[in-house]
Amino acid sequence: MRAPRVAIVGSGPSAFYAAEELLKAGVLVDMIERLPTPFGLVRSGVAPDHPKIKAITAAFEKILAAPGLAFYGNVEVGRDLDVRELAELYDGLVLACGASADAPLGIDGEELPGSLGAGAFVGWYNGHPDHRGLAVPLGAERAVVVGNGNVALDVARLLLSPPERLAATDIAADAAAALAASRVREVHLLGRRGPVQASFTPAELRELSRLEGIAVRVAPEDLELDPACQIELDMPHADNARKTMKLLCEIAAAPPRPAARRLHLHFRAVPAALLGRGAVEGIRIARTVLEGPPARRTASPTGETFDLACGLVVRSTGFRAPPLPGVPGDARSGRVPNRDGRVTLSGRVLPGLYVTGWMKRGPSGVIGTNRPCGQETARAVIADLAGRPVRSDPGFRLDALLAGRRIAFVDREGWRRIDACERALGAEAGKPRQKLVDPAALLAAARGRAEAAAVP
Amino acid sequence: MAIVVTEACNGCRYTECVAVCPAGCFHADERMVYIDPATCIECRACIPVCPVQAIYDEEDLPGALSGWVEINATRAPLLPAVEEKLPPLKAGAA
Ligand SMILES: Cc1cc2nc3c(=O)[nH]c(=O)nc-3n(C[C@H](O)[C@H](O)[C@H](O)COP(=O)(O)OP(=O)(O)OC[C@H]3O[C@@H](n4cnc5c(N)ncnc54)[C@H](O)[C@@H]3O)c2cc1C
Ligand SMILES: NC(=O)c1ccc[n+]([C@@H]2O[C@H](COP(=O)([O-])OP(=O)(O)OC[C@H]3O[C@@H](n4cnc5c(N)ncnc54)[C@H](OP(=O)(O)O)[C@@H]3O)[C@@H](O)[C@H]2O)c1
Asked: What is the ipTM of this complex?
């Protein structure tokens, strides 16, 4: 029997884990990615000073090399191809587009220059072409990061790192230069709930607390727990919260040492407004009180506020999947409604359309979380294909369709050339790679043209 | 800092960890699993999913279990990799 063909849109972790499972079942996979480069947030999200995590790309490269898989980079679904046409051309369509849009806070002043979403800021320092040239005001001593997740800690750590800490990483060259000239010396991190509800993991907090030249500070009163928080902390599955709390208490108890770079952690503190005329000059912070039962506590403002002067506010409060024409979305949760990976509309399954990763579950979970997620979706595809005749036209080639539309795509070999070019540029600069951030430079490198090297 | 599987896995081997490992760094014998530090990316996805809390960050490893760092590093490379969940060894396990 002829092998069924499935298209996967996106090339982040969830796309690769779904592809791996489909390939094992003998399905042919076309992977379509809007950037010339694969790996999604592993390339453009994971912090440059965490090279060990980035090493997961070695596992993805193996999947990328499989004979049953074809990579089509620089092809955007919704612009170059549409969802309905792909659903017709393939035996199944798996959406794995992530959740790249920064969720807004909905407060006054949010639109001022100097107010940035974490997705944009992180994309900028990681060389995501969409965010090259981002205006990041780093002239004021103080910056504020809103949110209490691991992304917020990444942002705070990058803002406070002395330049030499980042010199041998794959940080984007323009961001490295801007951060080296940065006057930011003090970052305030705001958690709207308490220390027990912080969603960053203890390993990331510990890393920050040990960095040379950076002092982490927290006021002891911010660590006081009411009875419901104490119960939450003692719950059997609260291992991470207990580790975090222990670390925070050690930080609060340590004798204050003078440090050139400081991170202040605030709990029960939520932004009420960004202040400034023409640009962010400060932030109004509202104190909150926690309500509700253990493990379901929510924060409400008490009415008490205080202001902090600052030149930059980065909100790291979650992401949303941008709407994709032809795909049902839920604006509130920012993900695509689905049943075990089968896309649903008003509760009914849309045959042939599937979703995985952050687009399916919402913007949480580490790289590993996407493995069972991608497998679940792939198994739904495989189950639906079983016993049905293969529908896709055996003569259909995506290459030909794209060529007809004059869309220059980057295939596996093109990515290899980009990769080799970036590594070579990096070797000259003593870095694992020097990312190309201009789409024209990426495309030139994919074609093996030397001028790529001239315009990083 | 390595991530290590310890005594509590022995005779249990639920392998919830294997399902979430993005790097395929778990190896198994007939009693338990081990992490190969050469392929582990230290993402810690496995630590919270272990039903018997057998997996530790070396940082948090109680002194009595410190020998397991060496055991994981030496055993794992000698054993076959496991990429799929295995039936647990303990009767009544999930
Ligand atoms: C800043 C940050 C740091 C992180 N750090 C870590 C970490 O250190 N360790 C860890 O384990 N996890 C980390 N994570 C979490 C991890 O990155 C995610 O769990 C994972 O990347 C989600 O995978 P995904 O496949 O759903 O989406 P993504 O990785 O976002 O991949 C989506 C892909 O789809 C492509 N795409 C989008 N729209 C289209 C379209 N219309 N057409 C074609 N292609 C499209 C995108 O370009 C992208 O390549 C981090 C996340 C963030 C935001
Ligand atoms: N090193 C790593 O392993 C690493 C690094 C980066 C990211 N990741 C993973 O990637 C995923 C995404 O990370 P993330 O940090 O974006 O998500 P997250 O952990 O969900 O954190 C989002 C934070 O934003 C807060 N928040 C949301 N809306 C808010 C509002 N309106 N006002 C104030 N605060 C608000 C949340 O507080 P509440 O809890 O009160 O809602 C929470 O603290 C996570 O699973 C994370 O672990 C891992």
From this structure: 0.89
